[in-house]
Amino acid sequence: MAFGKSKNRRRQDAAQQKEAVVGAVRTHGPGLLKAILLTGLTVALVWGGIEVRAWALSSPTFLLKETTFSGLQRATPGELLKLSGLTVGQNLWALDVAALERTMSTHPWVRSVEVRRHFPASVSVEVVEHVPAALAVLGDLYLLDEDGEPFKRLQPGDALDLPLVTGVVREDYIADEGKTRERYRQALAVAQAYAATGPGKRERLSEVRMSPEGLVLVTADGTEVRLGEGETDAKLQRLSRVREELRSRGLAAEVIHLDNRARPGWVAVKLSSPVSERNGASQ
Fold first, then answer.
1. Residues 35, 36, 37, 41, Cα dihedral to 10°
2. HEC readout, the chain
3. Distance (Å, whole) CA 225 – CA 100
4. pLDDT in tens, 81-126
5. Which of 46, 109, 223, 273 is 20 to 30 A from 145 (CA-CA)?
């Protein structure tokens, strides 16, 4: 024959190969035979996996039909879909879940997001949004969440009535974000404790000012409450008693000092001028 081997020659080669395998198994024991069988099985599984993946990536069974969202208050499904590029008709097997989560997390209201695929044809998106607790003055006004993170510049449509937190300049925040956030958390904790005392409308908190001497609270009627540092609960209890006393006497305070370090239990009050005196009228 011009090309190839004769049938007899091929039979001889096959017999020799078989005899070589049998001889190797006899020499090295059953472990070699097991390895040969496992190698063949692995090749079959890999080939089968490639075929299954190719089918899954092209099958209309796994085309996205529905995306559901939970946890949304300020962000909208449309905004998150636009950011991520997630659309109906995409193949679920081909979705990069981590990339979807990263892009959706760039929305200013989104604190965290988790994307789950539900085969054959749907995706769910669970969102945790920032909860605004105050407004931080950092050049512009920023929304401050409960963890002390300025997460979003205030926009006209945000429509939020929140106290201001002042006393930090933008440069200080940029220089040491961790330290500044800790200061913000302390200010927010005091604001929360103050709100729990149930102040009236006039005493509602308007500003928390951070100064080198400690915290200063400014109420809606303009009264300054100088807390200083530490013993917040005890100081707020004294503040409530001072206010009751002032109301019983028909007086109003301009400044209430609760920051006497030498005598922590002392309270000093600067009374506000009567309305007639402030207007320049005679008594």
1. 90
2. CCCCCCHHHHHHHHHHHHHHHHHHHHHHCHHHHHHHHHHHHHHHHHHHHHHHHHHHHHCHHHECCEEEEECCCCCCHHHHHHHHCCCCCCEHHHCCHHHHHHHHCCCCCEEEEEEEEECCCEEEEEEEECCEEEEEEECEEEEEECCCCEEEECCHHHCCCCCEEECCCHHHHHHCHHHHHHHHHHHHHHHHHHHHCCCCCCCCEEEEEEECCEEEEEECCCCEEEEECCCHHHHHHHHHHHHHHHHHHCCCEEEEECCCCCCCCCCEEEECCCHHHHCCCCC
3. 47
4. 999 999 999 999 999 999 999 999 999 999 999 999 999 999 999 9
5. 223
Tokens of 259: 């920051």
Per-residue burial over 207-227, b if 16 or more Cβ lie within 10 Å, else e, is bbbbeeebbbbbbeeebbbbb
- Summarised one tens digit per residue, pLDDT across range 164-221 is 999 999 998 999 999 999 999 999 999 999 999 988 888 999 999 999 889 999 999 9
Query: Token pair of 148, please?
Result: 């002390």
CB neighbour class for 143 (10 Å; exposed up to 12, middle 13-18, buried from 19): buried
% pLDDT > 90, the chain: 65
Give the least confident one: 3-7, 65-69, 243-247. 3-7
Contacts of residues 124-127 at CB distance under 8 Å and 24 or more positions apart, as own/partner, are 124/67, 124/68, 124/69, 124/70, 125/67, 125/68, 125/69, 125/70, 125/80, 126/69, 126/70, 126/71, 127/69, 127/70, 127/71, 127/72, 127/75, 127/80
Closest CA to 100 of 108, 109, 89, 87: 87
